[in-house]
Write a structure and sequence with these properties.
The chain is of the alpha+beta class. It has six helices and eight strands; from the N terminus they run αβααβββαβαβαββ. A three-stranded antiparallel β-sheet has the order 1-3-2. The protein has a three-stranded antiparallel β-sheet with strand order 5-8-7, with no helix packed on it. The longest helix is centred in the first third of the chain and has 17 residues. It binds ligand HQG. Ligand HQG binds next to strand 4 and helix 4.
């Protein structure tokens, strides 16, 4: 069952964050897909129960189901342009970005860039950042003075699942 949930979660991430076109799925401007349409078009076995199960058990609360239960979207992590409707808010004094040591030279030169995603992803705690960094190699955690940046006009958003998002973090902020 865990394998099925994992595979379903990966499939949902793929079509809801990156490639709805791969199955001809329509996402509205806020990133919502109609659940019946998703089930009908999915190229893996998909049921409403399975979707609900993935949403409820997702360790990172990756997905949200709409209040009317008709639609689903990813809470963050998009590479396609969606409007999550997030309001810029005041961040905590520090936020953390977990990355791999092999990216450090480039990051110090160019700053933190969203790369394939809409936003740079930041974590509220170092443990989470370490886990994120591990996905790419030997982890290293960058400490971002988020409140100071905010006070100088940088916008920070908090996704439904607690992940912090911002546009770019220029290299001068790491010095
Ligand atoms: C790096 C997962 C070179 C950046 C996680 C990161 C997160 C640079 C990688 C969410 C760079 C992009 C996002 C630069 C940034 N030069 N490398 N100038 N600027 N990078 O996966 O933050 O499990 O797109 O440090 O938990 O790792 O999918 O971003 O290492 O919340 O739900 O480029 O994805 O969530 O990698 O992860 P990613 P991320 P899920």
């Amino acid at each position: 069952m865990r394998k099925t949930l994992n595979e379903t979660s990966k499939f949902l991430s793929y079509v809801l964050r990156h490639k709805p076109d791969a199955i001809g799925l329509y996402l509205d401007p806020e990133g919502w897909a109609n659940i019946d349409e998703l089930i009908g078009k999915a190229d893996i076995p998909l049921t409403l129960e399975l979707i609900q199960n993935v949403v409820e058990t997702s360790d990172k609360k990756r997905f949200a189901i709409s209040d009317d239960n008709q639609s689903i979207r990813a809470n963050q992590g998009h590479s396609i342009d969606v409007n999550l409707g997030l309001e810029a808010i005041e961040p905590p004094e520090f936020l953390y970005h977990g990355t791999a040591t092999r990216f450090l030279d480039s990051i110090k030169e160019q700053g933190l860039l969203p790369k394939n995603r809409q936003y740079v992803h930041l974590s509220a705690d170092q443990a989470t950042a370490a886990t994120v960094g591990q996905r790419h190699g030997k982890p290293v955690i960058l400490t971002i003075p988020a409140l100071k940046m905010h006070d100088q006009g940088h916008k920070f958003f908090k996704a439904e699942n607690g992940v912090w998002l911002t546009d770019v973090v220029k290299p001068n902020w790491f010095h």
